[in-house]
Structures are given as structure tokens and as C-alpha cells.
Amino acid sequence: MNKFILRWAINAVALYIAAWLINGVDLDPNDYVSFIWLALIFGLLNASIRPLLALLTCPLIILTLGLGTLLLNTGMLYLTEWVAGFFNIGFTLTGFWPAFLGAVVISLVSIVLSLVIKDGKRRK
User: Fold this and answer.
1) Termini Cα distance of the chain
2) Is the CB of residue 111 less than 8 Å from the CB of residue 7?
3) Where are the domains of the chain?
4) What digits encode the pLDDT tens for the residues 39-73?
């Protein structure tokens, strides 16, 4: 359970930083509850649908030497925007490049925070 809450918090921070840095990745910065719900949606989609999409796009990922993963992350961000629309969370992407840069920022922030913040059960 602690790992789930930790991933949820990391996703929330990563989404906040992406919305703050990238013009075109828009979410009301004063509405912190929206970030929490958006992080939950993003995390659930990444945990449930992303492995299947990664398996289906495996030839593309291999052919592009891993750069296809960036497109997969962009697609997951678009899917998050679509699902968030059903819950009236004001998350919008204004185009491909803001979504692409937002996915890159979210990936980088998630990697850095995952390395810095360790789960208590991990051992060296």
C-alpha cells in the first residue's frame, strides 16, 4: 500500500511540474485536488493499459531503439486527458508538441523522484 501511495504522490508532483513548465499542458494550478485525481487516473492507466500497449508496439520500440517509448508516453498522456474529461478535471493538452514535452518532463521527474525517494522495503 505504501508503494501505491508513493507512486501516486510522485505522479502528482510530476504532473504539477509538467503543467508548470510546459505551455500547452494546462491544469488549474490552484486546484490541488485536481492534481491528486489526475495523478490517480494517470497512474491507473499506466498500470493497466500501458503494459499492453508496450507489448503491441514492441516492434516500433525496437526499430526506433527505444525512442518509440516517448511516443507511447505521449499517447498515455493524451489518454489521461480523455479520461479526465469524463470526470470534469480541467486537464488539457493544446497539441502534439506540448503533450510530447509534457510526457518527457513527467518521465524525467518520475525517474529522478523514484531514485531519490526510496520505498522502505527495498534493499541494496
Assistant:
1) 21
2) no
3) 2-116
4) 999 999 998 998 999 899 899 889 988 888 899 99
